[in-house]
Design brief:
- This protein is mainly α.
- The chain is 62% helix and 0% strand.
- It folds into 2 domains: 99 residues, Isoleucyl-tRNA Synthetase, Domain 1 (Orthogonal Bundle), CATH 1.10.730.10; 77 residues.
- 7% of the residues are buried.
- About 6% of the residues have low confidence.
């Protein structure tokens, strides 16, 4: 269990899903339908279906019931995770009945679910770590630090955005590992500072790509 990295695993699942969405958006599927290009439509659909089939295996450790629902809708048996993207659901396959994977949560049930799944907060004799107020000394210390570069959610993601998101994730892992193994020596602190600076640089570049993608999406929307 010490070797299991749940957050990293889930990030990979989301990254593959995002690349699948990007493929659908850039494939020209809507144009192919309008132009009555059945060959192109079939090509895109068969790849998308098989990517979903692979995601059903990747997501199983996190959401087993969702994975089973995907398999039911695909009308396919459970599968193992392949080494590379493979085409296992072939043309002519009869899929099952489409259905929503997730149901909308009634607003009336939000508080009920919070109470049920929030867990038990450990008792503490000190100040609440989640409190919104900050002590004056801590506030002054925090103000001296450079504000982190905010990452933007721009909707559809380009290949550059996905690539830089992965670079930020990897560099973030590097920083965390350096901090976890630090002996407080000058050499360790220098390595951490260098890694943090690189992470900030990657985040700034990511924001630049995100803004570029957003501008391109808005321009395309106006053109359409």
């Amino acid at each position: 269990m010490d070797a299991v990295k749940l957050r990293s695993g889930l990030h990979i699942v989301m990254h593959i899903s995002a690349r699948g969405n990007l493929y659908l958006q850039s494939s020209g599927l809507n144009k192919a339908l309008k132009a009555e290009n059945p060959k192109r439509c079939a090509q895109v659909v068969v790849r998308a279906v098989n990517l979903i089939y692979i995601l059903s295996a990747l997501v199983y450790p996190f959401m087993p019931s969702t994975s089973e629902s995907v398999l039911t809708q695909l009308n396919a048996p459970a599968r193992a995770v392949p080494e590379v993207l493979s085409i296992d659901i072939l043309p002519g396959h009869q899929i099952g009945t489409p259905d929503h994977l997730f149901k909308k949560i009634d607003e009336k049930m939000v508080e009920v679910y919070k109470e049920k799944f929030a867990g038990n907060k450990p008792a503490s004799n000190g100040p609440d770590p989640d409190a919104t107020h900050v002590a004056p000394a801590a506030a002054k210390k925090k103000a001296k630090g450079k504000a982190p570069v905010p990452l933007e959610d721009t909707g559809p993601k380009t290949a550059e955005v996905l690539e830089w998101e992965e670079k930020v994730r990897v560099q973030g892992d590097v920083v965390r590992e350096l901090k976890a193994g630090s002996t407080k020596s000058a050499e360790d602190q220098a390595a951490i500072t260098k890694a943090v600076d690189e992470l900030k640089k990657l985040k700034a570049e990511l924001v630049s790509y995100q803004r570029k993608a957003k501008a391109e999406a808005e321009a395309a929307a106006v053109a359409n």
